[in-house]
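Please decode residue identities from the backbone states below.
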């Protein structure tokens, strides 16, 4: 992408209410994300496919289950995108996982809806679901912790 076009896109994100913009064309992608820590100064971060991942922001979401509302030391499953969190494949269907369930790598944990596309989020590790940190149907941010899995 040409530098001038990229600068226009950055200005668009800076001057608008959107927090994130991703454009994919012909096998290339550009992702522009407002840096929430630097938002007061209007700074944005630009990521391209293949670049190093950005550390996820901390989550202020309440705990759905578990004694402690804070995020502990288990494996944390974070949202790879901005979207809506769904615990089941349909409103009348049972949840994919519950607190206390054993999960294996590759098992579906939830669905994240983004722009009318349903994306299944799979477990990266095996273990026991310790916490579910988001309510069904709630919006989630990129990098927000969704589940905590006890791998011990």
């Amino acid at each position: 992408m040409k530098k001038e076009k990229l600068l226009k896109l950055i200005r668009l994100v800076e001057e608008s209410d959107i927090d994130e913009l991703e454009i994919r064309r012909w096998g290339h992608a550009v992702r522009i994300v407002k840096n929430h820590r630097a938002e007061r100064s209007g700074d944005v971060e630009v990521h391209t496919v293949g670049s190093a991942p950005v550390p996820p922001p901390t989550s202020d979401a309440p705990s759905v289950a578990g004694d402690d509302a804070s995020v502990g030391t288990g494996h944390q499953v974070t949202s790879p995108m901005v979207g809506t969190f769904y615990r089941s494949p349909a409103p009348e269907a049972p949840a994919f996982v519950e607190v206390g369930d054993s999960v294996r790598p590759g098992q579906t944990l939830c669905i994240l809806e983004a722009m009318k596309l349903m994306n299944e989020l799979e477990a990266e590790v095996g273990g026991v679901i310790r916490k579910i940190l988001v309510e069904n149907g709630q919006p989630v941010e990129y990098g927000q912790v969704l589940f905590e899995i006890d791998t011990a």
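Observation: The helical segments are 3-15.
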